[in-house]
Amino acid sequence: QVQLAESGGGLVRPGESVRLSCIFSGTIFNRYNVRWYRQAPERTREWVASIDRDQRTEYADSVLWRFAISRDNAKNTAYLQMNTLKPEDTAVYYCNIPALDLWGKGTLVTVSS
After folding, report:
1. 77: closest CA among 37, 38, 19?
2. Whole-number Å distance between alpha carbons of 94 and 113
3. Beta strand ranges found along 1-113 (DSSP E)
4. pLDDT in tens, 42-57
5. What is the DSSP string of 4-27?
């Protein structure tokens, strides 16, 4: 069964950085667009960033210039580099391949002093 698995979350202080990874267990990863979403406590899930198969990227206004999405097709992996983290970035972060309606189980990022 094809799966996505996120990793890299944890507890960080405001202003620090963290990089999330999302590994795809299937094949032909390079054909798919990949998205990152997040869900904060008692909030609805929101889109964070996207990268298409041509490496074009898009970002939500709330993370623009602080987060960077990337991919390494040779490793079947997408990344979310998160810089200058704020307490409001605290959430469970999920990766998604919309073409397959495939979601990972998420990784928790907590930003707190």
Report:
1. 19
2. 24
3. 4-7, 10-12, 18-24, 34-39, 46-51, 57-59, 67-72, 77-82, 91-97, 102-103, 107-111
4. 999 999 999 999 999 9
5. EEEE--EEE-TT--EEEEEEE-SS
